[in-house]
Write a sequence for this structure.
């Protein structure tokens, strides 16, 4: 990976669209597929032509290959190295709404070991060969040369992001890039945990069923979202459980109609992240709530 501009890691002003695009083009020129991330640091939802897999491609993002839609669709599959796509009118609006930049490690022949906290970092330093390291908000990304299958929760606070996945770009990092070791490959073939986990990446925060909204006024929804945000914000213990129960409550009321918007979901995610929840925990809680309710 090359040495383009570092995207800010600490909280602060959102990078300007020109800055994000400039960094994206620099990475793409070195063969690193890139894509913008929206508020909540998650991919953009599919366009109306591709919503609910109407296009027939990549159900649950499990099939490989680049997205062929001119928009920023299909999460990791939207990642591209084509400067004509990155600068196209279809992507222009996305860069203006984006808050940060991501890349598809496997498409660049890389694997990212995502260490979510200090304990996971300490484990890696004792267990894995040294390689290039990029600091994250709460932990580190260890980047190796070589692609493999991606898998979440291979250990406490440890995910593997490579093929069919995306990772935030937080700068070039430090240290020498080394070959993917067998110790990392072995993590992905261990017996899966009995605990149910949802995928980290979601093509959109909510799979709207498009039904007629049964609520009396928009104020009903606004009051519900405000109460949910307050419930999360005021949690002093069991934050994980509070976030999940709150997401479940919101979806049980509003999940079967089309009234929830990206803005509403972003408010919930932001409240949870302010309480220390990681993006992974937020997306897992949301997806688990959807599964529980059969949405």
């Amino acid at each position: 990976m090359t040495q383009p501009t570092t995207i800010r890691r600490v909280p602060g002003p959102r990078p300007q669209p020109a800055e994000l695009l400039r960094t994206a083009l620099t990475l793409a020129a070195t063969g690193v597929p890139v894509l913008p991330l929206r508020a909540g640091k998650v991919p953009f939802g599919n366009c109306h032509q591709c919503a609910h897999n109407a296009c027939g491609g990549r159900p649950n993002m499990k099939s490989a290959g680049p997205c062929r839609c001119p928009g920023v669709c299909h999460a990791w599959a939207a990642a591209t190295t084509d400067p004509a796509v990155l600068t196209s009118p279809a992507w222009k609006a996305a860069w203006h709404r984006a808050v940060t930049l991501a890349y598809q490690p496997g498409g660049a022949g890389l694997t990212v070991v995502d260490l979510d906290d200090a304990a996971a970092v300490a484990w890696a330093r004792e267990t894995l060969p040294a390689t290039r390291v990029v600091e994250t908000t709460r932990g580190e990304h260890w980047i190796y040369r070589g692609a493999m299958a991606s898998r979440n929760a291979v250990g406490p606070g440890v995910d593997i992001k490579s093929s069919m996945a995306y990772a935030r770009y937080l700068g070039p990092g430090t240290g020498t890039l080394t070959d993917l070791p067998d110790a990392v490959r072995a993590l992905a073939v261990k017996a899966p945990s009995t605990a149910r986990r949802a995928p980290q990446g979601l093509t959109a925060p909510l799979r709207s069923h498009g039904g007629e909204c049964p609520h009396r006024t928009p104020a009903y929804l606004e009051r519900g979202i405000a109460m949910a945000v307050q419930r999360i914000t005021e949690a002093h213990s069991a934050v994980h459980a509070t976030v999940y129960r709150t997401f479940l409550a919101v979806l049980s009321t509003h999940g079967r109609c089309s009234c929830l918007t990206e803005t509403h979901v972003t408010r919930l995610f932001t409240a949870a992240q302010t309480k220390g929840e990681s993006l992974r925990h937020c997306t897992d809680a949301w997806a688990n709530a959807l599964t529980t309710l059969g949405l």
The CA atoms of residues 154 and 190 lie 8 Å apart. The first strand starts at residue 34 and ends at 37.
